Amino acid sequence: MIIDLHRHLWSIFERYAAVREIAARGGVAGVHRHAEAPVQDVGARAGEIRAEMEKAGVDRSCLLLGDYGLRLGEGDRSIEEENRLATDLAREDPEHFIAFFGIDPRRPGAVDLFRDALDAGARGLKLHPCSGFSPGDPVCHPLYALAGERGVPVAVHTGPMAAPLISTYASPLHLDEPAADFPDTNFVILHAGQRAWFPLALDMARWKPNLYLELSLWQSLLIEDEARFVSHLAEIKNGIGLGRVVFGSDCPGVSAVMPLHTWVETFRDLPGIAGRHGVEITTDEVEQMLGVTAATLMGLS
Predict the structure, then answer these.
(1) 133-145 pLDDT, tens per residue?
(2) Which of 70, 93, 96, 263 is the most exposed place for a label (fewest CB within 10 A)?
C-alpha cells in the first residue's frame, strides 16, 4: 500500500484571497491561474485527486489543512468548514482519503474542535507554525495530549516559508520539548526541516524515538542534485533507519515541480538510484517509507 501522508485539497493560493493579492503584486510565477477566487467544488477536486492517485499508484491520500487565518486574515471558507470538507470526504470515500484536522492552537475551542473531528473520523492533527506560534507553546499541549490519548500522529510543518508567513517557529527545534513532554504522542516533522534545518531534524530524531521524518519538498533537491538527495537518505538510514520516514508529496502546491507519479516512481526506483551513488536501500525499506510506517502511525490495518 502507498500512503501519501501529505497532500491538500487546495493550495494556499486557492484558499486565501490575501495570498493571491500579495503574490500578484510580487509577480509570483503562475499566480495568474488563481487571480480570482476558484470555485471550491470538493466533488470535482476529489475526482481530480483520485485520477492523479490512480496514475501514480497511490492508495490513500491524507488531506492536511494549514490554518493561516490568524496571520493572513480568514480564508475564503471558515476553518471549521474546511475541516468538515476533509472529514466528510474521508468518511464518504475511506478507500482513497484520510482526514487530518488542521487548526491554529490559539483559536478558541481548538481542542473541542479537534475532539469533534476525531469523533468524525480524523486520523491526525496538522499544525502550521508559520502562522505565528511555536509548537512548543503550552497552548498546544492539550492538543498533543488528546492526539496521544487517541493514538493519532501530529504532523508539523518545518522549514522556511515565503512572506507573509513567517519562519521563526518553523525550526524542528520547537518540537524538541513537545516530543520530550509527550512521549506517547508521535510527531511527524514535515519536510524534514527542509534544507535549512535537515541536520537538526535528523539529530533530534536520533534522540527522540517519537519523531518521524517526511520528505515532501525534497523534489527540487532531487532534480538539482541527485547525489546530495541520496546522501541525505543515507544519513537518515544510518542515523535512525528508513523505517521512521513517511512518504508525502505536498500536492497540489508542488505538482508543477514534480508530478505525483514521478515522485512515487522515484521512491520505487530508490534501490537503483541509491546504488548509483554507493548507497544500499532495499525494497523492504522502500515499502516502509511508502506506506507501512504511515499505516502503523495512524493505526490502519
Answers:
(1) 999 999 999 999 9
(2) 93
In single-letter form, the type of residue at position 171 comes to S
C-alpha cell at 62: 491524507
Cell of 270: 530508490
Q: At 114, list the grid cell.
A: 479537534
pLDDT surpassing 50 at residue 71: yes
pLDDT for the residue numbered 34: 47
State the Cα–Cα distance between residues 187 and 210, nearest whole angstrom. 6
Cis peptide before 252 (omega within 30 of 0): yes
CB atoms < 10 A from the CB of 38, how many?
16
Q: For residue 62, what are the β-bridge partners?
A: 98
- 152 contacts: CB under 8 Å, gap ≥ 6: 118, 122, 123, 124, 125, 298, 299
**Residue 149 and residue 167: Cα distance in Å, rounded?**
30
Residues 6+ apart with CB under 8 A from 129: 135, 156, 157, 169, 170, 174
Cα-to-chain-centroid distance, residue 242: 18
The answer to whether the beta carbons of residues 200 and 173 sit under 8 Å apart is yes
